[in-house]
């Protein structure tokens, strides 16, 4: 480690005085202008992680669904997974080190993790379309090179594409080719094979409107569409040619406002979907004949996927264990439907994809989705081998089902939730089953629900248990929630501190929208009173809180994971 060079280059990426950031659920996220030093330092950290794991490590520059002025960075571990928790701590430690402590902190981390500094290091880098992303990714590269690491800069990529590249590179090409062409070809081949089998292939099944949140998804989908055009024609909206990233559009907007994005004209019963800003989330929706908007969120996506996989397994005659993983935000109707109608075991984890991903790995087939549309399906190596064999050996009907499953496995991005891959999976299933978007939606009816945010002085006063469904502190809060919930039918409510914004999130569901809104409001008041609310008391009506969802910077002392110390 050339400590002299590190000190010299670090000074060129100096940390603003007093800025403290935390590696949160989705890495570091804050205003782009505060991130230069973090990028440089994450370049350094990626080299250390690469040396330690003797593998390629990924660095993605994005702030997903946050406003355009924000940016962020996260590291991708060898199998395309999120960074290991112990290294998240190192990331926070390194990002907040004062200039004069940089050398000591780097040595500290290397010693703690027994990093062999002689080992070669390789880092791959991707970025989204934000105006700040190119320069920030250059700072990552500076960090990588000053520690002697090799790198490949993929330039513009969706977040899940970068996860895919890392996974491919560390599995000797078995998962796929680590190029953008390789990604397009792997997914499109599987998709075209699948849709060839569909007996219903009228126009209705072939066209889809896609809101790309004015982000990277538009560029990549446009590059990719001719690879799969035999099976599906996509019409792109909010493709970045005019509008602002994530502004009044995208999956996060549609899910939290429960209304369509701007910039997309929807005729009744047309199938539409929205990606988020870095294309790792997707939600579907349509207008019915009466002009009512219907949202099909991550829960219903998980239901469609797991029921299809289960049917295929029955046809093949394999009894593999299949599980669905959700968070507390999953609509109660979805959990009930999965458990009682589909007889699939359902598990609840804490919010954040890494928790769901980890749990899903315990099954032969694990399907996980957050209600907001981030998710995928994971298949154990044993299952993949078994299905490959079945696709060659079984007699006709079973072989066809096994072949289908083989292609579906290829179509999923098993490294991370991926809007493009999930979209193609969903489109293939709808075509194969001959399901319209309305029929899919009608699998079950969502319980009316409401999400709110409450500002408190320090959201860490709220701690939770039971996969965040119950508050442990502050004293009296859970009892208050229990009493409020009793007042409504089919009701449920919980609160938790956000991991990406300086707010407390409140969730409530009940038998009617009015009850869900009332319950959410009453719970907000309890949080405000018992957990140190600041600013204006929560007002009835959900507007004030939820419509600010996309402008996370409106809250607290900073944004996302940022705090400024005086
Ligand atoms: C209720 C909700 O949607 N929470 C989101 C949000 O986390 P919070 O910890 O709730 O701020 O951002 C995460 C990262 O994108 C995502 O994984 C999660 O689902
Ligand atoms: Mg995202």
From TrEMBL:
Q: Which UniProt keywords apply?
A: Acetylation, Carbohydrate metabolism, Coiled coil, Isomerase, Magnesium, Metal-binding, Phosphoprotein
Query: Where does the Alpha-D-phosphohexomutase alpha/beta/alpha domain start and stop, copy by copy?
Result: 51-98, 118-167
Question: Which PROSITE patterns does the record associate with it?
Answer: PGM_PMM
Report the co-factor binding details: Binds 1 Mg(2+) ion per subunit.
Give the protein's cofactors.
Mg(2+)
All copies of domain Alpha-D-phosphohexomutase C-terminal, residue ranges: 476-524
* Pathway assigned in UniProt: Nucleotide-sugar biosynthesis; UDP-N-acetyl-alpha-D-glucosamine biosynthesis; N-acetyl-alpha-D-glucosamine 1-phosphate from alpha-D-glucosamine 6-phosphate (route I): step 2/2
- Biological process, per Gene Ontology: carbohydrate metabolic process; UDP-N-acetylglucosamine biosynthetic process
Enumerate the CDD domains for this protein: PGM3 (cd03086)
Q: Which residues bind Mg(2+)?
A: 64, 276, 278, 280
Ranges in coiled-coil conformation = 387-414
Q: Where does substrate bind?
A: 370-372, 496-500, 505
- Name the domain of life this protein comes from: Eukaryota
Recorded catalytic reaction(s): these are: N-acetyl-alpha-D-glucosamine 1-phosphate = N-acetyl-D-glucosamine 6-phosphate
Q: Which GO terms describe its molecular function?
A: magnesium ion binding; phosphoacetylglucosamine mutase activity
Enzyme Commission number: 5.4.2.3
Q: Identify the catalytic residues.
A: 64
- Family according to the record: Belongs to the phosphohexose mutase family.
Physiological role = Catalyzes the conversion of GlcNAc-6-P into GlcNAc-1-P during the synthesis of uridine diphosphate/UDP-GlcNAc, a sugar nucleotide critical to multiple glycosylation pathways including protein N- and O-glycosylation.
The entry's protein name is Phosphoacetylglucosamine mutase
Organism encoding this protein: Pan troglodytes (Chimpanzee)
User: Which gene holds the coding sequence for this protein?
Assistant: PGM3
